[in-house]
Amino acid sequence: MSMTAGSNPISNSSTVPSCNFSNPSISCPVQYGPNPNHTFYIIGQAVRGPVRNMGWNAYARAYTMLQQGCSYFDDLFSRVVNSIPGARAAPTEAGSGAVCTMPKVRKEGCENPSMTFDPVTQKCTLHCEYKFEPEIQYISIEEASAQLKHYARQILKIDLQLESPIANTEREKLLLAKEEWIRKQDETIGKLEAGAMITVESDGQPIVVTSKMEDRYKRLYYSDAVDAFRKIAGATNGIMGLAPTSDALPFIVTKIFEHMLHDISPGDALDIAFVLDTTASMTDDINQVKRNLLGFLETLKKSKNDVTFRIALLEYRDAGDSFLNRVRLDFSSDLDLVEQAIQDVVVSGGGDHEEAVFDALLAAQKELSWGPNSRHAALLICDAPPHAKTVDGLYDATYVTDKCQSAGIDISVYPIVTSK
Fold first, then answer.
1. β pairing state of 197-200 and 206-209
2. Residue 74 confidence (pLDDT)
3. Longest alpha-carbon distance in the chain
4. Which of 190, 223, 256 is at the close of a domain?
5. Range of the domain at 244
6. How far is CA 325 from the centre of its chain?
7. Residue 52: in which H helix or E strand, if any?
8. Do β-strands 411-418 and 375-382 pair in parallel, antiparallel, or remain unpaired?
9. pTM for the full model?
């Protein structure tokens, strides 16, 4: 079959019964375009999409790099030109259109805010005046209670103006009931049995930790520390405090002080030894501990009872440190001298989990000049448990607590454990 001039090869191709390019006697129609059945055509179709995408991606990256390069060059050129004296007039807020807008959200405590514009950096800067609150002024327990009741009454008056008479009556009953609960709680803390635990709720109110509440509170502390110090307090007729935060320390110290004064008569004398863990683990708490001990001293100065106080300070660390324990100040009634000794305390050392607590209590019993006719108490502030025995391996908890309760000494230990 031959092709004639002017014939349509595609339309005639359907009349070709068989086309074999290897047979020269048979004429085949001319094929225009790629052969869709050819292996290379199929492969080309498969790779065309990914290759095209690669090309677009390469173009996009090149375009982005070009934009960044132009931006960098423009910035560099502007800096060079602007560095030439007189090349550019310095803009002003009024003349250049550079208007500084006061931000809606400002840092807490920002007072009398103002904005300034820097013509060189082209940036606005917010200026604030910050007024810092003065340090806490410690007052007596009686004054604090009176102020709290006054504020509670003021809040009640505001509520009374906003709510119905029935709701007001119920609210007043609840307020009076809470005041009564607080009064009974304070009385309970003063009469707690040896080994009892107290802590502070989120509202700042000290409470007694009952057996049902122990697991809830002990999670914040090293459990072995809580168990060990509770036994020490129980064996020496003291109670212990759990301070969930450093802010809770003044409340705990105040309530423990009330327990110390329970059943004490006017004219009696009370010797209190501050026994402080000054290892590095106390770094986060030591400044707050010092502030609260100083506040405690202010409370003693303003106290209206007729009890005579003497304070001593002993700090302890652990084996291998610069010292195992040392008396920084023996008993003194000069509270200004005690204040200076507290200010001089620094933390260092430690290393392992336990500390030389038993050695510190024995040192307090032997080296401090306890008054023969005074009540004796040791306020022990720490975060880690004691070693099972003293550093020399000779004495355990039973021996140490027996020595604290020996004739002529009779020291009640009041541990306060800070959180992890």
1. antiparallel
2. 66
3. 140
4. 190
5. 195-418
6. 30
7. helix 39-82
8. parallel
9. 0.57
Is the domain of 180 the same as that of 217? no
What sign for the dihedral angle of Cα 327, 330, 331, 337? negative
Which residues have a Cβ under 8 Å from the Cβ of 372 and sit 6 or more positions away? 408
Look at residue 254 in the predicted model and tell me its pLDDT: 82
Q: Is the domain of 264 the same as that of 152? A: no
Domain assignment present for residue 108? The answer is no
Quote the number of domains for the chain. 2
pLDDT reported for residue 79: 67
Whether residues 173 and 228 share a domain: the answer is: no
The string of DSSP letters for 227-240 reads HHHHHHHHHTT--E
Segments of the chain scoring below 50 in pLDDT? 1-17, 21, 89-96, 132-136
What is the structure's pLDDT at 160? 60
Cα–Cα distance list, 57 to 43, 47, 63, 411 (Å): 22, 16, 10, 81
What number of other Cβ atoms are within 10 A of residue 125's Cβ? 11
Domain-terminating residue out of 190, 224, 254: 190
Segment holding 241, helix H or strand E = strand 240-243
- State the pairing for strand pair 123-130/110-118: antiparallel
Q: What is the pLDDT of residue 169?
A: 63
